[in-house]
TrEMBL record:
<dbReference type="InterPro" id="IPR036179">
    <property type="entry name" value="Ig-like_dom_sf"/>
</dbReference>
<dbReference type="InterPro" id="IPR013098">
    <property type="entry name" value="Ig_I-set"/>
</dbReference>
<keyword id="KW-0393">Immunoglobulin domain</keyword>
<feature type="domain" description="Immunoglobulin I-set">
    <location>
        <begin position="4"/>
        <end position="64"/>
    </location>
</feature>
<dbReference type="InterPro" id="IPR013783">
    <property type="entry name" value="Ig-like_fold"/>
</dbReference>
<protein>
    <recommendedName>
        <fullName>Immunoglobulin I-set domain-containing protein</fullName>
    </recommendedName>
</protein>
<dbReference type="Pfam" id="PF07679">
    <property type="entry name" value="I-set"/>
</dbReference>
Amino acid sequence: MKLGITGSPTPTVIWTKKGKPIPRARTSNTIDCTTLELLKAHHGDTGNYLVIVENDHGRDFADIPFIIIDKCGPPEGPLEVSDVFADSC
């Protein structure tokens, strides 16, 4: 996730999920943008992420929903097959 930011002096940026730091995340900040990269993201990383941008003149924040799409895993069983006939199913 890459977000444009502005402020003078350059603001500090904090990313959190459920009020806590994100241990597997890599963040980087420049004068005009902040980036959050989730390393080895998986479906459990889905949720709202909070970014807080602050300097001497104020504070702003955004609550950003992330939806992580993962490839499907194997089906969980037992599976029950029904209504299968020789000419249709």
